């Protein structure tokens, strides 16, 4: 398991996401208890944590799918909680969201899946332009041959790649990956990790990667934060996060790399 | 005694609590339905118009229902004629069969049978499709790509259903009448011209208008119920099954209620 070399293009002076005092509860269960987070331009930030700790809730709040109970969520200079639906849509065009199960539209071919956001948001594009963009992103994720296939004909790894391609098609500034390697075999997981780094390099994106897979965290994270009991308890490089005697952190490490 | 009843865990207090919770849930659900319908009427007028999806849904709801509707309508026409004949024959009035068939099919059976079949075929399909899209986060995916999923999925399906069910109703009515004609022709040797002359003689313009209005309302109900149940289905595969099932049950229930109410209104207009 090789640690990622920190991206030299990270701009620590420019925050693309800034969150302060974020709280979110479902009925009586408080999931996020005052989360503070900064994502810098060009950075890959990994959010680690056990299942059910609110990792996915965090990125759903960032993308406006869920509303925070308390706190300031600033994305690309906009306060997400105060945007009307038009402003939120405009912001969403700059955010790519890769879902845990890819969320490809079952009734559409790969091409139609990729065309779906383009047709709606790049109306000045001709059909030829759209074709060119679709082929470009498919080539970027290494799946040019899948253009006419249905999602049901693709493997789990291929679906993840197409899901990432669909988010890249509108050239987002920020990528949000929800459990990108969940349910994939180790070799496919490594390929997805490489793809996440490739996307960061080639498309100059800033990303939040939600995962509980430490191999993924080490391979893609410029910085890692660990969500424990509704708050970020540890942050730093991968090795810094796990250089602690905290049992909760250690047990997380040991269960991932049990001998 | 009173103080006992207020103790936590007391049976009466628990029952009261459960009833209150159920009432709460019912009112929350009603408010949610109201908001869903209001959102439809708010969004249906403004662009972007999802024309391609609307046409696709018209095909799915209309054209793909034709085989089932044809068979059912035709058989209903034959069976209804066959079952009605003995009663009229007792009075030597079998010549009134075309008029009887006409009134029954145009006024009630055509719209009702079409709506019930559509509720089963279309309602369940919409409920299951949207439910599965909700569960697999496809609706969320549309939302985060700044596409309005309500407009793409709900508005297009409800409009298609509202438009296609009346068209299917007209078709079912015609096919049922043809079924009735075949039966009448075989037994009473009535010609096609005479049969249809008597059919149209027995009904009024109001019957056709009422039948059309009714089927528009049925179509809207089927589309709206299917979309509401699917769009708001809870997580998990169980939720998809429930969405499909309750789409059919709720739509059928509402169709019968609407039929009853519309019939009263039409009868009042007729009397007036």
Walk me through the structure:
The complex is a heterodimer of chains A (259) and B (272). Chain A has 259 residues and is an alpha/beta fold. Chain A has a domain at 11-105 and 172-256: Rossmann fold (3-Layer(aba) Sandwich), CATH 3.40.50.300. Chain A is built from nine helices and ten strands. Chain A has a six-stranded mixed beta sheet with strand order 6-7-8-3-9-10, with helices on both faces. In chain A, helix 6 links the parallel strand 7 (174-178) and strand 8. Chain A is globular, with a radius of gyration of 18 Å. The two termini of chain A are 14 Å apart. Chain B has helices at residues 2-5, 11-43, 51-61, 66-89, 97-135, 138-144, 149-188, 192-202, 205-231, 237-271. Chain B starts with a helix and ends with a helix. With 272 residues, chain B is mainly alpha-helical.
Provide the fold topology:
The complex is a heterodimer of chains A (259) and B (272).
Chain A: E1 11-26, E2 29-41, E3 44-48, H1 55-62, E4 70-75, E5 78-79, H2 85-92, E6 95-98, H3 110-121, H4 127-140, H5 156-168, E7 174-178, H6 186-203, E8 206-211, H7 214-220, E9 223-228, E10 231-236, H8 238-242, H9 247-256
Parallel strand pairs in A: 3-8, 3-9, 6-7, 7-8
Antiparallel strand pairs in A: 1-2, 1-4, 4-5, 9-10
Helix pairs in contact in A: 3-5, 4-5, 5-6, 6-7
Chain B: H1 2-5, H2 11-43, H3 51-61, H4 66-89, H5 97-135, H6 138-144, H7 149-188, H8 192-202, H9 205-231, H10 237-271
